[in-house]
């Protein structure tokens, strides 16, 4: 079943996070991920607000997790770790 990769992010270092973004996009695409939303307008109804929200669709939870664990994504993530506060989840969806 398809899955969504959902990230809620507060960027604390724009320059370093820019390096993450430059590398993360190709890593996600290489695993079949397709962005549905990246930093667009949102309305926070409950919980902690994060100014950047990203949603990508993958063919399966396993594909999304494989992407996260890939060398390419981990390289990208090395730039985001000290440049942001974030939550990331993968959730299976009905298609």
UniProtKB/TrEMBL annotation:
Protein name: Uncharacterized conserved protein, DUF1330 family
Domain of life per record: Bacteria
Gene3D superfamilies: 3.30.70.100
Bilayer-spanning residue ranges: none
Residues of the DUF1330 domain: 2-92
InterPro entries, per database record: Dimeric_a/b-barrel, DUF1330
């Amino acid at each position: 079943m398809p899955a969504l990769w959902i990230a809620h992010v507060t960027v604390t270092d724009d320059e370093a996070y820019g390096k993450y973004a430059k590398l993360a996009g190709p890593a996600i695409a290489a695993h079949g991920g397709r962005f549905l939303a990246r930093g667009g307008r949102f309305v926070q109804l409950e919980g902690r607000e994060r100014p950047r929200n990203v949603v990508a669709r993958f063919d399966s939870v396993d594909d999304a997790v494989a992407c996260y664990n890939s060398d390419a994504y981990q390289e990208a993530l090395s730039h985001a770790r000290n440049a942001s506060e974030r939550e990331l989840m993968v959730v299976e969806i009905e298609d």
